[in-house]
Every structure is written in structure tokens, then in C-alpha cells.
Design brief:
Helix content: 25-40%
CATH superfamily of the largest domain: Thiolase/Chalcone synthase
Number of domains: 2
CATH architecture of the largest domain: 3-Layer(aba) Sandwich
Shape: globular
CATH class of the largest domain: Alpha Beta
């Protein structure tokens, strides 16, 4: 037990991606790049992309339903839905649309934005709602469609991102707590390294009264700075989460990182002295799906039989904000 109220277990997971995809070879017909250039620098082979008929809330709902089915829980039993996303269908949020789509009419639903760290932050938030006794069944969803926000003429960013959604169900448990430890951080002074900023022009409404009228510009990233940030902070935050869990790296069965770049994942596992066979990676198939990447990778690993009940998983999300965090949990109820 954790010393608060109810303990927390993760009982189901699910994921969804668009059917269409763009390979590196196909992308090289759009911008000046090549399969070799992309793979050697990122590890990405292709990315799944949502067309106009596919909404963020649709992908999120599909992932959520799969997680509920695995846990054998009805949507009507869900108390809270947390949707981690930076790309909602509606600027006011998409969680309520997901609630409606899956028929979880008892649940309160709201969006949470922490970019590529979003799923991890939402998972910690769900844990606290359960530990305080406020809710018993919480759906945590990470979903993004960043293909709608990248500049497809900028090879530094358009090669990286794909679309998708992943979800887990967190449930109260009276005896065992499988959320073992976590650590979260932010540093807004580094926002310029990775952002999707609003820009506009001044619009006068009357003498002395002006507003700004504009739009959000495509995603911008300083890849070198983000790499340095990730390889420095991610091992550190995982070690802090392990300390809170009274565990060491030798206790880790699987490392499930935000799927941003294979070189980052390799560097992190090296610094933690974890062998490559303990690192879960589906980056080659999906690219960087932002808030969806951790639950998408977890779901595939669980359904393939790689991750088994009782396995200890170390996970870390990192990205715009800048934000980063680590969490240690045991899979299954």
C-alpha cells in the first residue's frame, strides 16, 4: 500500500493508428532526404498518418475501447477520462468527445497538455485521483495527430512525426499498488528548443484598444538541443523514480521510453547499463507519435506477449515545455 487511500493497478491497454502510412522512400519524393539519412539519424522507417476522415478523438476512442475490453470493464464504469494531447480536434478539448464516443456517460473528461510527456503526466495524475479515493476507474489516453502541425517542407521535423493513440485503464485495488515510483520536472526557460507557437499581427478595434489576430505556426525544433536535453535528463529522472520505488536498474524488466529517436533510446539505455533486449522500440514502424508513443509501444509489447504480468517497467516521457518525467510500475493486476 502507499500510505494514502486506494492502491493503483493498470489492468488494460489499447492502441490505434491510421491505416495509411508514408515510408522514408516516399517521403524522399516530397523533401530532400533519403531512407538512409532518416534511419541513420532517427531509426524511423515510416509513419502512419491520419487523413481528413480520421479525427483525434476517433483514434483516442478506439484505443480506449481496446483498453477497457482487455480489463473487462464497461465504459459505464469509468469515472474519469484523462486525454493527453497537444493536437485536439477542438481547441477547447477533445476528452469529452471521447467520452461520448465510447459511451462513458458517468465519467468526467478533460484534456491535459504536456506534449510528449503528456501520457506520463496523465498517468501520474490518474494515480493521485485514485490514491485519494476520488475515483476508482480512470482511463488514461495519449493521442496526437502532429502530421497536421508539421511543415512538410522542413525535413528536420516532417521526417519525425506520425499519428496515433494509446490508452491504459488504471483501477483502484485494495491490496497492492503497482505504481511504484515517479518523478516529474519542467523547465520553461528552454521552451524555444521545441515549440508550436502562436503568431499574429496587431488588430486595432478602436482608439487605444488592440488585439492580436493570427494562427499557430508549424512545429519548430532544435534537434541538437533536444538530444542533449534528453540524454542528460532521462537517465537521471528514471534513477530518481527508481529511488522512490526502492529499486535499482537491475530490477527493471523493460524500458519503455517516449519513442522520439533511436539514438536517444540507445544513449539512455547505455547510461542505465540496460541491454538492448530490454528496450521496447516500435519507432521504425510509427515514428514519433508524441503523447501516444509510450502507451502505443506498451500495448504492442503486452499483446505480443513480450511484457508479462508482474514485469517491472521503467518509462520516461520528455519533450516540449520543456517537460520530462519518469515512472516505475508493475504490469497487470
Amino acid at each position: 500500500m502507499n500510505g494514502f487511500g486506494a492502491a493503483v493497478v493498470i489492468t488494460g491497454c489499447g492502441s490505434a493508428t491510421p491505416g495509411q502510412f508514408l515510408s522514408n522512400e516516399e517521403l524522399s519524393q516530397i523533401v530532400e532526404t533519403s531512407d538512409e539519412w532518416i534511419k541513420s539519424r532517427t531509426g524511423i522507417g515510416k509513419r502512419h498518418l491520419a487523413d481528413q476522415s480520421v479525427s483525434l478523438s476517433q483514434l483516442a476512442a478506439q484505443a480506449a475501447i481496446k483498453a477497457l475490453e482487455m480489463a473487462q470493464v464497461s465504459p459505464r464504469e469509468v469515472d474519469l477520462i484523462l486525454l493527453a494531447t497537444s493536437t485536439p480536434d477542438d481547441l477547447f478539448g477533445s476528452a469529452a468527445q471521447v467520452q461520448s464516443r465510447i459511451g462513458a456517460n458517468r465519467a468526467i473528461a478533460f484534456d491535459l497538455t504536456a506534449a510528449c510527456s503528456g501520457f506520463l503526466v496523465a498517468l501520474v495524475t490518474a494515480t493521485q485521483f485514485i490514491r485519494t479515493g476520488t475515483y476508482r476507474n480512470v482511463l488514461v489516453i495519449g493521442a496526437d495527430v502532429l502530421s497536421r502541425w508539421v511543415d512538410w517542407n522542413d525535413r528536420a521535423t516532417c521526417v519525425l512525426f506520425g499519428d496515433g493513440a494509446g490508452a491504459v485503464l488504471c483501477q483502484a485495488n485494495d491490496t497492492k499498488d503497482n505504481i511504484l515510483g515517479f518523478e516529474l520536472h519542467s523547465d520553461g526557460s528552454q521552451n524555444g528548443s521545441l515549440n508550436l507557437a502562436y503568431e499574429g499581427e496587431e488588430l486595432p478595434l478602436k482608439q487605444g484598444v488592440r488585439v492580436q489576430k493570427g494562427t499557430y505556426k508549424p512545429l519548430k525544433m532544435n534537434g541538437r538541443e533536444v538530444y542533449r536535453f534528453a540524454v542528460a535528463k532521462v537517465p537521471e529522472v528514471i534513477e530518481k523514480a527508481l529511488y522512490r520505488a526502492n529499486l535499482t536498474t537491475s530490477d527493471i524488466d523493460w524500458l519503455v521510453l517516449h519513442q522520439a529517436n533511436q539514438r536517444i533510446m540507445d544513449a539512455v539505455s547505455d547510461r542505465l547499463k540496460l541491454p538492448p533486449e530490454k528496450v521496447i522500440s516500435n519507432l521504425s514502424e510509427y515514428g514519433n507519435t508524441s503523447a501516444a508513443s509510450i502507451p502505443l509501444a506498451l500495448d504492442e509489447a503486452v499483446r505480443s506477449g513480450k511484457v508479462k504480468k508482474g514485469d517491472i517497467i521503467a518509462s520516461s516521457g520528455f519533450g516540449a515545455g520543456l517537460t520530462w518525467g519518469g515512472i516505475i510500475f508493475r504490469w497487470g493486476d
